[in-house]
């Protein structure tokens, strides 16, 4: 069957720019500086055994339908109660992934006549949900509360402010306290995607909103389970009536088959381990600060060190806005035994292409140092970064 010409042209454009994506299975044995498995739970033997035991003790494994029809179980509801309790919220509602949760929340909650202000660096799934909403929407400059204040003049109806607590590509933190005060002061609904902070911050890993004790100021949090939790799926946590509203009106919740038991068991067992992972959480932050200190040691490195606010963040961006040079850099580092991945436009804005580096509890200081040496060694010296 012939493929439409315009699709072929678009693929060709990517080939010419050197930004064509393809699937690749990482060779085994590389040091992981790429995955979102921050705490090592995805590969934890203890967790795998716990999940297997839990699944074996249950009878059915397939969900058989959507939650509102045959797919609901006491198990799923108990898990939601546990999640709500853990995150210090009234209620939680499971979604099949973080992507679906964002689509499910933003397509249903802000409505015609309402306004959404969202950080321009927000994840594609938030933007997708916002596109599906009938509310009007405006981006504000990344982490710029003054710009948000300015734009609030355009607000009408119920007003939602959407941010991530830890940005997935820049690795910097939202000014959550400032945003929460502004939203309190002006009666706005703050929505925080905690995909990259869930499991990593707070006494037990409850996320950044809890670590900052802002649970009461934040209307809804999107918790995903595919990153530090080492599993798959997501939940929206917030007021009880929000849960009730979503299960009545959110189409990405209503019209899809529920998660199977194995996924629910993985989430439940991972959450049981989370409180005990204090050292792992501390280790991620220690390595992140170490990485930063190495960058600050060298002037050449400092010019590639990304932004303020990344110190202590498990996600670090090494910008190199030349796709061909960036791919070459990634290849060099991979050949030396380190799994790092280049991120091109449109996942990040053109001119801000980068290696997205992720630090994990199971990385060592020696590995981080070696990685820094390689970055330094193989990054072309004549590249200037846009401001
Ligand atoms: N939000 C953010 C900030 C993310 O980084 C991601 C995943 N890249 C998602 C949502 C989507 O989550 P999931 O992978 O569970 O669909």
UniProtKB/TrEMBL annotation:
UniProt GO molecular function? pyridoxal phosphate binding; transferase activity
What keywords is this UniProt entry annotated with?
Pyridoxal phosphate, Transferase
An example Pfam family from this entry, by short name, is Aminotran_1_2
Q: Does the keyword ATP-binding apply?
A: no
**Residue stretches making up the Aminotransferase class I/classII large domain:** 30-373
* Obligatory cofactor(s): pyridoxal 5'-phosphate
GO terms classed as biological process: biotin biosynthetic process
**Is Lyase among this UniProt entry's keywords?**
no
Instruction: Give the record's family classification.
Output: Belongs to the class-II pyridoxal-phosphate-dependent aminotransferase family. BioF subfamily.
- Any idea what this protein is called? 8-amino-7-oxononanoate synthase
Q: Which organism is it from?
A: Rufibacter hautae
């Amino acid at each position: 069957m012939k493929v439409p010409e315009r699709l072929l042209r678009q693929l060709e454009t990517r080939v010419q720019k050197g930004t064509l994506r393809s699937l690749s299975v990482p060779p085994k044995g590389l040091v992981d500086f790429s995955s979102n498995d921050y705490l090592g739970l995805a590969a934890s033997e203890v967790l795998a055994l716990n999940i297997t035991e839990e699944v074996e003790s249950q009878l059915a494994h397939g969900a058989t339908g959507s939650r509102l029809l045959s797919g609901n179980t006491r198990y799923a509801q108990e898990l939601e109660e546990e999640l709500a309790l853990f995150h210090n919220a009234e209620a939680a509602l499971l979604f099949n992934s973080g992507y679906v949760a964002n689509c499910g929340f933003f397509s249903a909650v802000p409505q015609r006549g309402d306004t959404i202000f969202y950080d321009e660096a927000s994840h594609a799934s938030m933007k997708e949900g916002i596109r599906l909403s009938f509310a009007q929407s405006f981006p504000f400059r990344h982490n710029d509360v003054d710009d948000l204040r300015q734009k609030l003049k355009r607000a009408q109806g119920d007003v939602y402010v959407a941010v991530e607590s830890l940005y997935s590509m820049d690795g910097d933190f939202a000014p959550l306290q400032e945003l929460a005060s502004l939203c309190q002061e002006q009666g706005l609904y703050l929505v925080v995607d905690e995909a990259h902070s869930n499991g990593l911050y707070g006494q037990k890993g409850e996320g950044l909103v809890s670590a900052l004790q802002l649970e009461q100021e934040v209307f809804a949090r999107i918790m995903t389970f595919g990153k530090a939790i080492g599993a798959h799926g997501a939940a929206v946590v917030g007021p009880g009536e929000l849960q009730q509203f979503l299960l009545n009106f959110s189409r990405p919740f209503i019209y899809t088959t529920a998660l199977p038991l194995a996924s629910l068991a993985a989430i439940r067992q991972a959450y049981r381990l989370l409180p005990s992972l204090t050292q792992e959480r501390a280790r991620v932050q220690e390595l992140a600060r170490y990485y930063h200190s190495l960058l600050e040691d060298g002037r050449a490195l400092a010019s590639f060190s990304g932004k303020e606010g990344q110190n202590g963040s498990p996600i670090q961006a090494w910008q190199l806005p030349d796709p061909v040079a960036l791919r070459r850099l990634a290849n060099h580092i991979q050949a030396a035994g380190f799994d790092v991945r280049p991120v091109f436009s449109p996942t990040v804005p053109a001119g801000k292409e980068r290696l997205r580096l992720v630090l994990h509890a199971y990385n060592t200081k020696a590995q981080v140092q070696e990685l820094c040496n390689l970055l330094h060694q193989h990054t072309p010296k004549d590249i200037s970064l846009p401001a």
